[in-house]
Amino acid sequence: MRDQFSRRDFIRNTGLGALSLSSVQIGRTQDQKKPNILLLHVDQHRHDCLGVCGNRDVLTPNIDKLAADGVQYENSFCPYPVCTPSRYSLISGQYVHQHGGFNNRSTLSPDIDTFPKQLRSAGYKTSAVGKMHFTPTYLDVGFDKMTLSEQDGPGRWDDDYHRYLMKHGLVDRNDLVDQRSEYRKNAPQEYRDSFGAMVSNLKETDHSTTWVGNRAAEDINGWDESSPNLLMVGFIKPHHPFDPPAPWNEMYDPDKMNLLPGWTEDCLEYDYQYSKGYFDNKTLNKKALRKVMAYYYATISHIDAQIGNIIKLLKKRNMYDDTMIIFTSDHGEYLGFHHMLLKGNYLYDPLAKVPLIIKNPGSFKAGTVSKNLVNNIDLAPTILSSAGIKPGISMKGFDLNSPNSGHETIFSGRTSVMARTKTHKLIQSGRKNAPNLFFDLQKDPLEMNNQYDNPKYKAEIKKLTDSINAWQPEEYRQKKTFVDHNAPQINQPNVPSSDLSHREEIIDYYKKNT
């Protein structure tokens, strides 16, 4: 890779120029073999930060081409804007209040059905690579093999990636400072001033994005014709810290970044009252935000390049046409919306909406753009239906193989809850010191003017309030999160001992080398 990047260089080097959306039907006969399934899952990706979504700055030619070969969903939402609960919802097809995994240290009960379990029972070889964010780390949710690269919590002391770094005498210093409170309290001033936008101390070859991409390619190289395959690939990025490796950090000029819709010069009073932010949102300014955006986009383009490698491999092995590919995220990112960064505030669209692209052999027209309201709980039944398997009765989502599938009202959250239609949105804060919000999205798509106390909208507010109460009855709000550190893990040689005796060595290694 060259030491300097330009937009033209990037497009030329990836072999992709201007894309046109085909309207050719992707055909599939009834007797055709079950498709391979590739789920590309990123973390904290704002829905409009893709070229195919009209973003003028970010370069994502491979993901854009994937959209041209499948369906792009303009109104796709996460079930809960927290990593682990959202992931459990995706694989189980259940809302968070139903599966009980309410936080990043929770466990998905072994009694709950998942699409990997059903695929495995139907003869699929099932693998997971990258960030899964489970408790315990190698929790058996239906994957035969798991090769993990974790970030938050104790998973980093258990996973394959951090053992790889230790073996090679390396430390992911920026990530450690950002994710572990015992290190963050001594973070360098550059970390605080830049809001976590720094060049990675790791070479590109050792960065988590490259490592995950390479492990995914190794798994695909092991696919054969004896059985269909499921591979879930979890990239850590573009989650903070915003630390692309060189030379990706030079790909975008911060001074040329166009601020995204929804930026305000100051924090809204009730937003700041709800949460000051991981970094203090009041200290955010345009110059700092533009650098964050440049590095955030660089991590997205780095992922896009790895996805390009994976797709190239599938085509080389003549498997692309017979592989269902899904690209999505666990939640979004404010990225300047209402003068905020990261997540952890009201369920505004940049946080609740996620990118969703589905390339599904045998269904849809290539290049379709759907405006239906969909939720990531819809992916489990959609995947199973595509494999000719009836979804488990506990799965609450819709099968998106039907062009008309979608929700009249989208729900997201648990204590703080969003109910959203195409025209209106109610957010219940769940806090006594934070107001509820209501927006007329037709007049106010950027959610600037709270109309909760406006008598004009009384009937619509009551309607959405009643829908929330029917969707999540009071007894569900009282449930405690489910945690079981002794839940069954997969049985593979790379899984550390359940007595956690391995952790002392790796924790001590990081203490001595940071």
Task: Describe this entry's structure for a reader.
It is a single chain. The protein is an alpha/beta fold and 514 residues long. It has an eight-stranded mixed β-sheet, with helices on both faces. It has a four-stranded antiparallel β-sheet with strand order 9-10-11-12, with helices on one face. The protein starts with 6 loop residues before the first helix and ends with a helix. It has helices at 7-14, 61-68, 83-92, 96-99, 115-121, 155-158, 160-167, 173-179, 181-184, 189-193, 208-221, 269-274, 286-316, 349-352, 379-386, 458-471, 474-477, 503-513; strands spanning 36-42, 71-77, 125-130, 145-148, 229-234, 323-329, 356-359, 368-375, 410-413, 417-420, 424-428, 437-440. Helix 11 runs parallel beside helix 13 (286-316). The model is unreliable at 1-31 (pLDDT under 50). The chain has 18 helices and twelve strands.
Protein topology:
Elements: H1 7-14, E1 36-42, H2 61-68, E2 71-77, H3 83-92, H4 96-99, H5 115-121, E3 125-130, E4 145-148, H6 155-158, H7 160-167, H8 173-179, H9 181-184, H10 189-193, H11 208-221, E5 229-234, H12 269-274, H13 286-316, E6 323-329, H14 349-352, E7 356-359, E8 368-375, H15 379-386, E9 410-413, E10 417-420, E11 424-428, E12 437-440, H16 458-471, H17 474-477, H18 503-513
Parallel strand pairs: 1-5, 1-6, 2-8, 3-4, 3-5
Antiparallel strand pairs: 2-7, 6-7, 9-10, 10-11, 11-12
Helix pairs in contact: 11-13
